[in-house]
């Protein structure tokens, strides 16, 4: 049974306006950690597929547990919602809304959060997190805006040829710290672009990143391309990036 302390959490809803997004705004959900105090400052985790991270990934409950029981430094989570109908167009680097989404994220979303919440503004205190194409867009945000983002959590990243090509053309990536996991039962997953071997996609991308000097945590373990696998992996991934107080 889930400890009742983990369910006493603060999750706020926000809407950020955008000049870049077609719909002109984007919904967010903000997790404030136990003991939140606006005179302090906090690391921040930006989650793609925000609704899924909160509902299926149970990221707020997990964060509360890690902070209360394991002494992780309190941190804020920003879940960025997405319209599933245009998700690939926003998240894939060859999508027709990708460039606009990156600009929205870096130029509008981050300033909006940093103006309203006491999050730290150094790249080492911002973490980008995503599953599948959410992991992909998180990596491309870091590659496009290394002055903002140097840390990426990728769960079963959908690193198609267009992504691998971009990584392959990158220069020194020794500034990048990326956490990659993929499930061993993801060798023939059907996507909206066809059937892909996600193990091969991740192995290839890992090799490309290593060649450029990136700092990589990489693991393959039993799991399918679904939240039942990723939910169980979120605690370890957060421990990797968030310091113990």
TrEMBL record:
Gene3D superfamilies reported in the protein's UniProt record: alpha/beta hydrolase (3.40.50.1820)
Highest taxon listed in the record's lineage: Bacteria
InterPro entries with a match to the protein in the record: AB_hydrolase_fold (IPR029058), Esterase-like (IPR000801), Mycobacterial_A85_antigen (IPR050583)
Cross-referenced Pfam families: Esterase (PF00756)
Name used for this protein in its record: Esterase family protein
Organism: Paenibacillus paeoniae
Organismal lineage: Bacteria, Bacillati, Bacillota, Bacilli, Bacillales
